[in-house]
Amino acid sequence: MRLRPAAMSVVGLLLAAATAMAAPSYEGYRKCGSCHRSQLDSWEQTAHARALDSLAPRARAEAKKKAKLDPNRDYRQDPDCVGCHSTGYDHEGGYDPKEPSKYLIGVGCESCHGPGSEYRLLHRKAGQSFEKKKQTAPRQQLAEAGQEFQFEERCNSCHMNYEGSPWKGAKKPYTPFAPKLGKKYRFDHAKAVRSEKAMHEHFKLEGVFTGPPVSSFHDEFQSRAKPGVSGKEE
Ligand code: HEC
Ligand code: HEC
Ligand code: HEC
Ligand code: HEC
């Protein structure tokens, strides 16, 4: 078959899209938060949002002493620490201690939901079709664009990453706050993921996206979700 130039450029575009999709990058919480206002406001109140502050000198001094860390030292640029206290460190578009971006400070939206450069465009497009024509879109395309729907492995990569962890992915740098330091540091995923104080409160979705994949707790969270406020992209 001979392709006409117009058809060729369509193929080219599809290839370019597929290549871009292979490596979505991190963008920071501002992009997400301009549309998802309610989740942003709620997340800003969490310990995740302020996780980088815990690396500052004199913050959490007692906890640091217990873990044999120096409470007077500034750990905010330490490669052994920042990976779990910021968003996307060591990944495309992620946190860089040498050029710190406010929107990548702390454990942000994309630390849990996945790097958003590709799927956020699909959110916008689907949101517009839904608004105009009540047309829904398959969730599957979001997963293919890098959006996370299972969460547990992502949580584990920070919370279960300690020396001697039963989690198979564990590797250095480990968290200094392993369960052997105290019961408080034991990570029970099923319990932790239900903590709205640690994630963010949940707000009712309109149902723009349908079908698999969904998390095992999605229906439960939506059944008691509040009405939310959404915004338009800035
Ligand atoms: C241009 C606006 C816009 C931007 C930017 C945006 N979203 Fe969305 N997002 C939407 C809309 C619209 C929906 C569908 C909401 C509904 O069904 O009520 C959605 C749905 C979602 C959902 C639920 C998907 C499901 O399972 O049904 C999550 C989670 C989400 N967005 C996270 C994010 C994150 C994280 C970012 C940043 C990387 C982001 N969004 C950026 C508009 C946006
Ligand atoms: C990028 C690393 C990272 C990821 C991913 C992550 N966390 Fe965390 N989490 C942290 C850090 C760091 C803290 C401690 C923040 C602080 O106090 O400075 C924390 C704190 C918490 C807390 C305690 C909050 C409090 O108020 O004491 C809970 C519960 C929690 N995380 C659950 C989860 C769950 C569930 C997931 C996955 C859905 C998750 N986390 C994903 C790094 C992460
Ligand atoms: C593998 C991921 C990871 C690394 C690396 C990491 N942390 Fe954390 N850190 C966490 C998690 C997860 C928590 C939350 C623990 C909890 O509450 O269960 C945390 C909590 C903390 C806290 C709060 C403890 C408390 O009880 O108040 C401090 C302080 C802290 N980390 C400092 C550091 C310093 C300093 C480094 C580097 C030497 C570091 N972290 C490296 C994941 C990590
Ligand atoms: C610590 C992990 C974590 C962080 C950080 C996080 N989320 Fe979520 N988010 C979740 C979990 C878990 C769900 C529930 C998923 C489900 O229902 O299947 C969720 C659900 C959502 C939903 C669906 C509707 C709802 O309220 O349940 C949206 C939209 C969303 N998050 C946006 C955001 C935005 C925007 C940010 C950053 C400002 C953010 N999230 C930060 C874990 C996180």
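^ heme C complex. The first strand starts at residue 137 and ends at 138. The beta strands are 137-138, 209-210.
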